Amino acid sequence: GDLDRMRPLDCYGVPQYADGDCTMSPSAPGSCCDRKHYWEGEELDNMPARVVLHITCPVRYHPSGSCDVTVWWKSNESDPARNTNAYTVSQEVIATLWPDEAECPWPGWEVQLNDYVLRSVPTGAGECARGRWLR
């Protein structure tokens, strides 16, 4: 009910939103609903889509030879700077999986990973059905 959605207020009376909450700010025309959504400190026109990347890598880096990386993909925002950038995601994945490496262990793999990220994003990512939570 409504009590599940109540959020505490800070000392200025501003709600402390959780990821996925609708805010009081109007969203851009053509967005998934009439109000923006809070996500990781930002107000977005559309809910981000959950994308799981299945990364294969040598056993010396990960014992199983693969790992899954979850990315929250933001797209179709009225401010294009808020959209997720595939190159940035690729760099973050590399830094997460190989934190001790100066660069990715295989030459040219950054480009392959970037292409894979783009292929993994579902069509219509960032669009949401009214009231549907994407976790």
Q: What is the rounded distance between the termini?
A: 19 Å
Cα shape: elongated
Number of strands: 5
- The neighbouring-strand order within the major sheet is 1-2-3
Number of helices: 2
Topology pattern, helix = H, strand = E: EEEEEHH
Radius of gyration: 18 Å
Biggest beta sheet attributes = 3 strands, antiparallel
Mean pLDDT: 79
Strand residues, percent: 15-25%
Low-confidence stretches: 126-135
Secondary-structure class: alpha+beta
The percent range for helix content is 10-25%
Quick rundown:
This protein is α+β, with helices and mostly antiparallel strands.
Describe the secondary structure blueprint for this structure.
Blueprint: E1 22-26, E2 35-39, E3 42-44, E4 49-56, E5 66-73, H1 86-97, H2 109-120
Antiparallel strand pairs: 1-2, 2-3, 4-5
Helix pairs in contact: 1-2
What does this structure look like?
This protein has 135 residues and is of the alpha+beta class. 18% of the residues lie in helices and 21% in strands. The protein contains two helices and five strands, in the order E-E-E-E-E-H-H. The strands form two sheets. Strands 1-2-3 form a three-stranded antiparallel sheet, with no helix packed on it. The longest helix is centred in the C-terminal third of the chain and has 12 residues, at 86-97. The two termini are 19 Å apart.
